[in-house]
Amino acid sequence: MDCEKCTEYLADFLLDELPEAEAVLIQEHLNLCPACMKAYRELKGTGKMLEAVPAMRPVQGTPDFSRAVRAEASVESAKIIRALPPEKRLRVEARRAARLTKFASQRSEKVSRSRVWGVVLALIIGVTALILIFFTGKNSLLYPHTQLGALSLVNGAVETGNASEGRSPRAAHEGETIYAGDTVITPEGGRARIDLNDGTALFIGPSSHVTLEPQSSSVDAFSISVESGELGVNKPLANPDKNAPRLMKWDVHSDLGLVLPDPGTQLFVNVTKNGSAFDGSALVVSGSAIVVSRHAGTEVTTTLGPGSKYLEGSGQPKGRTESVVGARVPGWRVELATEADLQRLFNGRVKLRSRSSSGVEVELTYGRETKQLTEDWLPEPAGPSTLSKRPDGAIAVPNARFAHIVPFAGPISMTLTLNRDVRAERSLAFGALYSPERGVSVDVSRDAVMQVRENNTRAHSSNLSARKESDKPEKLGLEIKTDRGGYRASMSSRDEKSTGYTLPPNFGEKPGQLWLQGLSDGIAMDEIKISGTIPSEWLSEALSRLGKQ
Q1: Residue 547 pLDDT > 70, yes or no?
Q2: For residues 406 and 537, is the Cβ–Cβ distance under 8 A?
Q3: What pLDDT is stored for residue 320 in this prediction?
Q4: What is the pLDDT of residue 71?
Q5: Given its phi and psi angles, is residue 304 left (phi above 0), alpha (psi -120 to 50 degrees) or beta?
Q6: Long-range contacts of 236-245 (CB under 8 A, 24+ apart)
Q7: Is the dihedral of CA 523, 524, 529, 534 positive or negative?
Q8: Residues 141 and 129 sit within 8 Å (Cβ to Cβ)
């Protein structure tokens, strides 16, 4: 018994209409074949319902109750029909019609005219559904209008459509609801993000054609079909909270076969078409997944772990795998990052301002509500010193140097609000775009001094009065903004701002470290605010780690 024959007779097996010898062969095959067993389990519940359809007998109850039961049975029978191959649908429908006709004739003298018409109505609905299958293909009657999520981000001339509802592709817009049967099409350079109701994020890359096709096993089950292009999946871990949304039942289908990601997995499926030929891959960035493919009529199951890539296509050995060292999400995925993604990377409060191919511009704030600082600010050199919270909520900065985990690119600004308890003689320093060869820094005691260093030499130094009134919190700032194709640096205090200094050419193009240092004990901050661009390269690596946390 092979998979094709098993699938052909699966409906009859479910209806217990096979000879015993054939039924035994089907059962043995199901015990050995995971794919056919999956199909069996999907149809098992609906198969039981199929047997119940012809058994619609008059029950004692109100007329409204009887009509409701018949209507529900008709809807469910339409769903069941979709689960069967076309040639089986005709046979099943014929058997149902014969049994229903026989049943109606046997009971005709005992049932009321309204009940007879109820059975006839069920027959009409069933036959109509069958006609729609063969003459109109997918139809909204057979594909339930199930809400799956929302199109949360659109970049470029993205289109959405739904062939089952006769809706041609049209311009997509952010926030629109995504239903079962919807197709998303992106142009070259376009991208889109769908956030499903269970917390799964789908990332649709450039030049892609992806459809969320309903499955027959359940109203909320569907397949994410990749016709061409690239699809990214970030599937969350199962949440033990009973009030959290449960994970939906879905898989990823393409010319590669069936891809089944485990919870907590990030993967990217890529399919390139060239006529009837194709090249495809499935890369697991974090987590694990199973690829079910068919080679020479035989079903093959491949398990992928972190950094594993499954490849198949023209001119290549089928079903080969390779290891990808330092596997990362692709660059276009970075342009689909949300504030929620960034909030998972940082403990400070994140506000996303803009996205581009070079990175994302953010405002990142650490204040009294920040609970954890040690993961975002690292001591240099590495040691036991940490930024911590004082009992009053202020951020305590010990006599040590700390670097922020993100090497920000310009333009950038860093603003520190000192706690009013910090005495005027206490000193601190902070800086931006730091590297071993260059950087802009501000040293603060009673005055603030800005220095620009290039090629390990001082290129500029300027002073600014600061901390004039000890009973008021001081606000100190360093700003590096674009100016005539380059960058210009300036510093500020609560009451004054320095004259800007034009940085050397190409100074701010490369990312650099942000840092903060207490030059004496007793330094405390009410707030640290950073505005700048997180480079795509850093963000790509950081987003790749999300599933591993």
Answers
A1: no
A2: no
A3: 87
A4: 47
A5: beta
A6: 236/198, 236/199, 236/200, 236/263, 236/264, 237/263, 237/264, 238/263, 239/199, 245/197, 245/198, 245/199
A7: positive
A8: yes
Report yes or no: 160 and 184 within 8 Å, Cβ to Cβ.
yes
Beta-sheet pairing, 409-418 with 523-535 = antiparallel
CB 161 within 8 A of CB 181: no
Closest CA to 258 of 223, 227, 234, 287: 223
Task: Read off the pLDDT of each residue in 171-192 and give the average, rounded to a whole number.
Answer: 94
CA 170/CA 423 separation, integer angstroms = 63
Query: Is it the case that residue 245 has pLDDT exceeding 90?
Result: no
Query: How far is residue 67 from each of residues 47, 70, 128, 267, 313, measured CA to CA in Å?
Result: 23, 5, 19, 48, 54
- The H or E element that residue 453 is part of is strand 447-454
Tell me the DSSP string of 261-316.
Answer: EPTTEEEEEEEEEETTEEEEEEEEEES-EEEEEEETTEEEEEEE-TTEEEEEETTS
Higher pLDDT, 405 or 241: 405
**Residue 207: phi, psi to the nearest 5?**
50, 50
Indicate if the pLDDT at residue 228 is higher than 80. Answer: yes
* pLDDT at residue 63, rounded to an integer: 55
H-run or E-run covering 363: strand 359-366
- Under 8 Å between Cβ of 319 and 295: yes
Strands 208-214 and 183-186: antiparallel
Condensed to tens digits (0 to 9), the pLDDT of residues 120-129 reads 555 555 555 5
Classify residue 215 by burial, with Cβ atoms within 10 Å: 0-12, 13-18, 19+: middle
Beta strands in 39-158 (DSSP E): 147-155
The Cα 137–Cα 116 span in angstroms is 31
Given this model, what pLDDT does residue 120 score? 52
End-to-end Cα distance, the chain: 45
Highest mean pLDDT among 89-98, 150-159, 308-317: 150-159
Q: Which residues contact 527 (CB under 8 A, 6 or more apart)?
A: 365, 366, 367, 368, 415, 416, 417
Question: Could you tell me which residues are beta bridge partners of residue 306?
Answer: none
Nearest to 38, CA basis, from 288, 260, 311:
260
Q: What is the pLDDT of residues 476-504, one digit of tens each?
A: 999 999 888 889 999 999 888 998 999 98
Run of H or E including 440 = strand 438-444
CB count in 10 Å sphere of residue 273: 14
Report the C-alpha gap between 503 and 507 in whole angstroms. 6
